[in-house]
User: Which sequence fits this backbone?
């Protein structure tokens, strides 16, 4: 039995309060930090419901906010308090291969009761996050996610652009029963062959807020992180025109989102600057219409009765650039990758473990997705290409399926070049790019980080059902 939905399909509980206060206190990098994923309980949907049994880092949902300045060393020891193996993957960080947290590729999975030490110096400022890369569909659905904020070397940009404060929002998605418990089973072939596990309850920083308190005249930097397994978000800030200043952690030339609508794929991040230009005491709706038939009000933007003292500010300047290598498009080698499979996808057969199998036989093994006609097996990652260190590459991603796929490349960022042949000249970098059904996306990057790097759909149900491979850089 599923949880009875309210307010256009999602739970609405009386849980008003500050979203910023909901995140655990930031932990800076000066001293080593121990993270312990373990079973816990969280009050996801308000005091009128029971607490939900979850898995959280240090027993918290979301996990602690880790902060480090660009180029400084971050050291974290993972102590596994779960009943199954796990790892830590530092999503979007261009780090040494041995620290990437991929079992069977960069390290062995960390067994229950065991530990593993991670240490690296992030080369790029921006908004990132950490999560497990073992049994990702279950461990993500149970709550294992936390923010990693890599700060600019100084506060000059925030001061020059009149930023009054910043907040980080982790958007989570849960499929709950009437008793506010996770609906079982966590993974199903239906979810895997369709859009993934999409829930009936959305949280921000681990709870359901009624309102976001703001003050007239202030400018807020808002870091958005989509930690959901499969849910896309399309957030519209009624009465406001947010400036997009970074995508997937990387600065971009500031631009105002069309109609104030911000689209976030699973694992995607967007940094916004929002000017609170309304009058004291006013309220506006922040809504999500990624699935138009199930659009809903997420919260109210609630202005305090008293106004601030800041005047209206001009358009923001660009964030300081990160040291990303620019691909040489004229000399770049092109690699084509076809995304195939799933329900209504028309995939008749594919190769698994060196054998060609029909879709029915694949489905019996829980495998229904492929890259270039090859299905990833359990613990097996097909080689998509051997890349020369320092060379530029174009990836042509063609989605032959009925579902969108957020495609994620580990250890690198790539520049968006074109969608369906239409050039994108906004200068946007991604580590996770949306490839819509029956569409083609072109990205380019420099293979400058040696090692074996995973490339996969970041809907974990799709990844675990075959849509993953790796690039070998060296």
Assistant:
């Amino acid at each position: 039995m599923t949880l009875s939905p309210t307010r256009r399909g999602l739970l609405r509980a009386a849980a008003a309060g500050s979203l910023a206060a909901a995140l655990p206190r930031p932990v800076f990098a000066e001293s080593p930090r121990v993270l312990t994923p373990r079973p816990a309980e969280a009050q996801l949907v308000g005091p009128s419901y029971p607490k939900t049994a979850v898995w959280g880092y240090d027993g918290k949902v979301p996990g602690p906010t880790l902060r480090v300045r660009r180029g400084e060393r971050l050291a974290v020891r993972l102590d596994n308090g779960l009943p199954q193996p796990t790892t830590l993957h530092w999503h979007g960080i261009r780090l040494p291969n041995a620290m990437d947290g991929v079992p069977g590729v960069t390290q062995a999975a960390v067994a229950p009761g065991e530990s593993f030490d991670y240490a690296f110096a992030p080369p790029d400022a921006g908004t990132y996050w950490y999560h497990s890369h073992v049994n990702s569909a279950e461990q993500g659905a149970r709550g294992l996610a936390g923010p990693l904020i890599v700060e600019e070397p100084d506060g000059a940009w925030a001061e020059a652009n009149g930023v009054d404060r910043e907040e980080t929002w982790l958007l989570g998605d849960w499929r709950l029963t009437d008793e506010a418990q996770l609906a079982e089973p966590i993974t199903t072939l239906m979810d895997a062959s369709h859009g993934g596990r999409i829930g009936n309850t959305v949280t921000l920083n681990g709870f359901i807020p009624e309102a976001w308190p703001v003050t007239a005249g202030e400018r807020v930097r808002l870091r958005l992180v989509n930690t959901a397994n499969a849910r896309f978000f399309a957030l519209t800030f009624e009465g406001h025109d947010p400036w997009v200043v970074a995508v997937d952690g990387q600065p971009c030339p500031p631009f105002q989102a069309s109609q104030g609508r911000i689209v976030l794929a699973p694992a995607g991040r967007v940094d916004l600057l929002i000017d609170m230009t309304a009058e004291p005491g006013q309220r506006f709706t922040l809504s999500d219409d990624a699935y138009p038939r199930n659009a809903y009000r997420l919260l109210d933007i609630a202005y305090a009765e008293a106004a601030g003292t800041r005047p209206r500010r001009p358009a923001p300047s660009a964030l300081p650039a990160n040291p990303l290598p620019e691909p040489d498009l004229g000399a770049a080698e092109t690699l084509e990758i076809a995304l195939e499979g799933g329900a209504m996808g028309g995939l008749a057969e594919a190769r698994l473990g060196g054998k060609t199998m029909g879709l029915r036989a694949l489905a019996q093994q829980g495998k229904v997705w492929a890259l270039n006609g090859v299905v990833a097996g359990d613990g097996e990652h097909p080689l998509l290409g051997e890349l020369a260190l320092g060379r530029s590459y174009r990836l042509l991603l063609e989605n032959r399926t009925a579902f969108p796929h957020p495609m994620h490349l580990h250890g690198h960022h790539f520049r968006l070049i074109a969608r369906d042949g239409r050039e994108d000249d906004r200068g946007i970098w991604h580590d996770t790019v949306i490839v819509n059904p029956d569409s083609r996306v072109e990205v380019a990057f420099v293979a400058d980080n040696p090692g074996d790097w995973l490339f996969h759909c970041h809907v974990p149900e799709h990844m675990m059902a075959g849509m993953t491979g790796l690039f070998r850089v060296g």
Remarks:
- Helices lie at 19-22, 136-141, 156-160, 189-193, 359-364, 460-464.
- The domain at 333-473 is CATH 2.60.40.420 (Immunoglobulin-like).
- The chain has three domains: 19-154, 160-303, 333-473.
- The longest strand covers residues 165-174.
